[in-house]
Amino acid sequence: MRRTLPPLKALVAFEAVARIGSVTEAAEELGVTHSAVSKQLAAIEAWFGTPLFENNRRRMVATPAAAQFARAAGAALDLVASAAEAFQPQAVPQVLEVIAPATFAMRWLMPRLPDFQAKAGEVDVRVRPMHTGEDWSGIPFDVVIRRGEALQGDLRSFALLREEIGLMARPDLAARPGLMQRLGAPAGREGVRLLESVTRPGELARWLVAAGLPADLAAGAARFGHFYIALEAALAGQGVIAAPIEVVADLVERGDLAEPFPELRVHGPDYRLGYAPAGEKAALAAAFCDWAVGQAAAGR
């Protein structure tokens, strides 16, 4: 059946004027001139054969019948616009697969990702945290970040940052008088417990030596399977931990952790990141690496 419809241009102009109440503002919404809207209003009134607006010099007020028609026209135009939007192909974001050490991924990388995604546009960065000792060589990736180890020779590799290890504790524990003398002492003598992760061996001992304390105090430390678990113990006030400043900087800024001896730090391992220069997403991976290096430089 053939539809009887008013001129569509005139219908759009009429609906906008009836809804907004102003020819000038309707023209601005539609991106046309005042006179163009006025011509379309004249055309639709001629098609209906009756005035569609009250005689009001200040505002364009539709007659009751015209207002009802305008609401129906608006709903129909909304439906057409919605259908047109659904018909258009949607942009599919690129996926960038990144593998990185677990604690570094959770505490350093992921909080910064919104900045990269805001700059890169339609990119879905998927971070896979890896634990120390896990074999990552067979895992598909676009960018790899490793701590304390060289990357495969076929990857384009970049230095990201080098850890600085400091002693960290909950602020109330860090402020305890005579803390240095209490480190590692028995609890009965008001000692302060040492915490360490088995995935970061030797770091606590090296910090103790830098502080002029016996390295073998580290032998009595409470050990945890992963660094992030040991860090949670420190946040709970269970003791002190030698931790990379870069990874816990936000906890220090928020006041969750404190560094009682900021002048005593030791170097930790280097982080490197890389990507396959011949890979399908080499350009995106290179942009990510440039961004990450810039983030590390800004944080120094």
From TrEMBL:
One family name in Pfam for this protein: LysR_substrate
InterPro entries: LysR-type_TF_proteobact-type, LysR_HTH_N, LysR_subst-bd, WH-like_DNA-bd_sf, WH_DNA-bd_sf
Highest taxon of the lineage: Bacteria
Keyword DNA-binding: yes
Signal peptide coordinates: none
rRNA-binding in keyword set: no
Molecular function in Gene Ontology: DNA-binding transcription factor activity; sequence-specific DNA binding
GO BP terms, alphabetized: DNA-templated transcription
Similarity comment text for this entry: Belongs to the LysR transcriptional regulatory family.
UniProt name for this protein: LysR substrate-binding domain-containing protein
Native species: Ancylobacter mangrovi
Source taxonomy: Bacteria, Pseudomonadati, Pseudomonadota, Alphaproteobacteria, Hyphomicrobiales
